[in-house]
Amino acid sequence: MIACSTLVAGFAVTYALQGTAQIPSSSSVCPRPPAGSVVNNPPEIRNPDASNPANFTVLDPLRTIAIIDTQAQLTAAAISSASASAPELNVDLTEVSGDRFSGLNQENPVQQRTLYFSENDTGTVFYITVLGNQPKVFDPNFKTPDITVEEGTTEDWLVQNRAQEAHVFHIHQIHFLVLESPDPSEIGTLRDTIEIPTWNGDLNTPFPSVKLRMDFRGAQKDTSIAGTFVYHCHILEHEDKGMMAAIEVKS
Questions:
Q1: DSSP for 48-89?
Q2: What's the rounded Cα separation, in Å, for the pair 6 and 31?
Q3: CA-based nearest residue to 215, from 242, 249, 238
Q4: pTM, to two decimals
Q5: What is the pLDDT of residue 70?
Q6: Hey, where are the domains in the chain?
Q7: By the 8 A CB rule, do 175 and 191 touch?
Q8: Could you tell me the CA-to-CA distances from 53 to 45, 47, 59, 115 in Å, in that order?
Q9: 180-217 as b/e, with b when 16 or more CB fall inside 10 Å?
Q10: Which CATH number fits domain 96-250: 3.40.605.10, 3.30.450.40, 2.30.30.40, 2.60.40.420?
Q11: HEC profile for 139-157?
């Protein structure tokens, strides 16, 4: 039997290898314990009461503290659990939301806009900008929204990623219809969040982008969305470092 050390959940533990494990005599590194191994702690003495040196508790060195499973076993268990708890859904959105999103793909947008994600040279300041405006970090005390639209309309937005890392577009209050995307499976879906892939940094190639039909119809569909709210990158660090802007929907 050979006693070896490893880390389990951040704690140094030992385990026993039965039989003739092949370990080089010059190495102090033990092989990874096999799946199903019982991992045991070394003998320990703890003193729960420092004021009373006589009050010692000896812990059983053979107690089981972990069972090691292979990644395949964990994956199989997760798939089995997900299959049992989340049956496949086949839902018509009009059954859930009534007439809320019907006809969006047939609407004539009143305006087309281009927005883009970008960063400063050191990747420490983040922007989301309407094309034609100067990039700026979000000011929570803003006086003028970055975009103003009329309730009852739709617009088509082209959202580009001009940064060399992925960004995720998210807007509050409304949903949009995905018209164009690098991922074909997203086209035709209704969403409020979508990822735009990383730009490769080559100015001779197009910026990655998605085209979205923004649904500001609101009161037309008996759900008024008039008011001021935000859109931003859904990655928290980017949002907190400036990648957010405001939109006003006028009644």
A1: S-TT-TT--EEEPTT-EEEE---HHHHHHHHHHHHHHHSPPP
A2: 9
A3: 249
A4: 0.62
A5: 67
A6: 2-85, 96-250
A7: yes
A8: 12, 7, 16, 69
A9: ebeeeeeeeeebeebbbbebeeeeeeebbbbbbbbbbb
A10: 2.60.40.420
A11: CCCCCCCCEEEECCEEEEE
Q: What is the pLDDT of residue 119?
A: 97
The helices-and-strands tally (H runs, E runs) of the chain is 3, 17
Give the strand pairing for 190-191 and 244-250.
unpaired
Integer Rg of the chain from CA:
28
Q: Which residues contact 182 (CB under 8 A, 6 or more apart)?
A: 197, 208, 210
Distance of CA 98 to the CA centre of its chain: 30
**Mean pLDDT, residues 217-224 taken together:** 78
Start-to-end CA distance of the chain, whole Å, equals: 78
| Token pair of 74 as six digits | 């964990």
Token duo for residue 246? 């405001």
Q: Contact, 178 vs 214, CB < 8 A?
A: no
Question: In the predicted model, what is the mean pLDDT of the chain?
Answer: 78
Q: Looking at this protein, which amino acid is placed at residue 83?
A: S
Burial 89-108 (b: 16+ CB within 10 A, else e): eeeeeeeeeeebbeebeeee
For 110, other C-beta atoms within 10 Å of its C-beta total 13
The SS3 call for residue 184 is helix
| 24-45 average pLDDT score | 49
Q: In this structure, what is the dihedral angle of CA atoms 90, 91, 92, 97, given to the nearest 10 degrees? A: -170
To which H or E segment does residue 39 belong? strand 38-40
